[in-house]
Specification:
Blueprint lengths: L7 E2 L5 E2 L4 H51 L7 H48 L10
Antiparallel strand pairs: 1-2
Helix pairs in contact: 1-2
Family: Belongs to the SNAPIN family.
Subcellular location: Cytoplasmic vesicle, Secretory vesicle, Synaptic vesicle membrane
Keywords: Coiled coil, Cytoplasm, Cytoplasmic vesicle, Membrane, Synapse
């Protein structure tokens, strides 16, 4: 029986192409993490959508407050509230940008993982191992 991390050997003493323990562990880990990464990505997407909606609502409210302020006969000082709304909008935009950057990094990581998994599967299927591989 072959040790984990080494290639299996046939009865004639020739190496048999097969996944190593390390490759199996890496593939298992990737399959274990994939649902969590996809769920995180969908949640980030949902948060980004809600933040865009919130930003639009803040813009509408700020516009409405300015309109009310202009229409009032009695001088109401709504400027501090408009400024607070605009400050809140700025923070929403900032958080949205952070989420967008995180989602992009997550997408690139997911793409890299899928690419590496495909490369390893192709190597295992073809029986070709890179130089210095413990499977030689």
């Amino acid at each position: 029986m072959a040790r984990a991390g080494s290639a299996a050997v046939s009865g004639a003493g020739t190496p048999v192409a097969g996944p190593t323990g390390r490759d199996l562990f890496a593939e298992g880990l990737l399959e274990f993490l994939r649902p969590a990464v996809q769920q995180l990505d969908s949640h980030v997407h949902a948060v980004r959508e809600s933040q865009v909606e919130l930003r639009e609502q803040i813009d509408n409210l700020a516009t409405e407050l300015c309109r009310i302020n202009e229409d009032q006969k009695v001088a109401l000082d709504l400027d501090p509230y408009v400024k607070k709304l605009l400050n809140a909008r700025r923070r929403v935009v900032l958080v949205n940008n952070i989420l967008q950057n995180a989602q992009e990094r997550l997408r690139r990581l997911n793409h890299s993982v899928a690419k590496e998994t495909a490369r390893r599967r192709a190597m295992l299927d073809s029986g070709v191992y890179p130089p210095g591989s413990p499977s030689k």
